[in-house]
UniProtKB/TrEMBL annotation:
Species per Swiss-Prot/TrEMBL record: Sodiomyces alkalinus (strain CBS 110278 / VKM F-3762 / F11) (Alkaliphilic filamentous fungus)
Protein's recorded name: S-adenosyl-L-methionine-dependent methyltransferase
GO molecular-function terms, A-Z: O-methyltransferase activity
SUPFAM superfamilies cross-referenced by the UniProt entry: S-adenosyl-L-methionine-dependent methyltransferases (SSF53335)
Gene Ontology biological process: methylation
Keywords: Methyltransferase, S-adenosyl-L-methionine, Transferase
All residue ranges annotated as the O-methyltransferase C-terminal domain in the record: 289-435
Family annotation (InterPro entries): COMT-like (IPR016461), COMT_C (IPR001077), SAM-dependent_MTases_sf (IPR029063), WH-like_DNA-bd_sf (IPR036388)
Amino acid sequence: MSTPAQESDGGDMLEKLHLLTPELLNSITAYSAATSSKTPAHGDDADRVETERRERIVEAAQAIVDAARPPQPEWMNQSTAGAEFVALRLFIEWGAFEVIPVEGSISYEDLAHEMDAEVQLLTGGAGAGVKELREKTDGESETNTARLAWLMVSSGLLEQVGEDRVRHTPKSRQLTESVPLRSMWQLMFDNSFTSSASLPRYFRTYGRREPKGLTHIPFTFAHGAPEKKFWDVLNAEPGRMQVFMHAMTAIDKQVPLMGPITGLYDFGWVADVVADEKKKSSSSDHNRPLLVDVGGGKGHCIKAFCAGEDSPLSQDRCVLQDVAPVIEVVRSDEASGLAGVTLMAIDFHVEQPVKGALIYYIRHCLHNYDDDTVVGIMKRTAEAMADDSRLLVAEYVMSNPPSRFSIWMDFIMMMSGGKERTAALWEEVGSRAGLRLVAFHGIEVSLDGHAVIEFAKR
Ligand SMILES: C[S@@+](CC[C@H](N)C(=O)[O-])C[C@H]1O[C@@H](n2cnc3c(N)ncnc32)[C@H](O)[C@@H]1O
């Protein structure tokens, strides 16, 4: 028999469900209308619009799930998600997602064999047949019901076939097809999850204040090397650096939320500058770099900006700067697609060696650092800028209160001692570096306020 409290909870829930259901239907109708539209969006724009519309459906559906869900221990949900994350990370490292055939299924026993792992570790014993395994292990496996593969089967990431076989779902198949996606999962686990798990210990050690500086940050603390810098720890293991770079290179395409590269800022005015240079035939400006990508990784932004006949930027007038190990990787990659680009190893904390370039572009680097360090990097750039130079910072501009995505990003950044910033904070750090904030570009076209923030010399 239900209690009065339960009856009233049920009544509230029904009322909420009645209110929420039309939202879900509206979001589906909007998506359906957009996909059958005669004037569909193209390129990055299409990805963004598609994501936004699907996000709306997910949000509406999630609200219904939340309203209908019976009271259950939230701590259990959270820790189950954590357990699945760990299992997924292990399967990535052990190559399991590649061993499971793209079509069809594999027995747990064969999967375990390929991974050089005990079959009991994958399931509670399904691989050898539950009965046989019980016999082999004197009944120990009877209690072993929540092992690695089953964690992913229980969440629907993998699908079990019968009692002893497993196959891909569309979600897990993506992990085999996309190196960047797999790298992103790895990165989130190795860099963020493990660092955040050590936060209680970190704050007990350093006090309850924002991590500051390049060392003694949660990431290096969690790696047992608090006196080292983030990149020193990352670069110490070549494999990890590769994972980081893979994740950064193409994730923009698959997760438009990460911030589009193109479409936020109009480089059209550069064409006028180039045309003016041509008029002054003796001008030394002809050799002036048009764009320096500071901390540009593998150069994917330069490639995107120079692509297409209409682009006023050309690779032979661009400079790609990054730390020496990254530049070495790019230099030795014959397929880098960076013909003509000047490759330069730098330390952006010390000096900007290219003086007087037209544009200094720095994307997703500054959010890795605390305010004082960011002011330092911006100052080094300001010192190199000519009066007409521009500094373009591609980063998030957090609203107040921020969206769930940008505050998640802010939390991730805290691990390396960094943070996301509000418009006011961007203005403040720019001003401290001797720069004037000219404009925020593209905020309206990107989810969660990803923008290109334009600064000029004061
Ligand atoms: C988050 S990644 C961003 C890469 C690229 N700008 C993008 O948007 O995908 C940060 C980059 O900054 C580089 N970096 C880190 N410290 C640096 C330093 N002291 N000087 C120059 N580059 C640095 C890293 O190697 C990495 O490629």
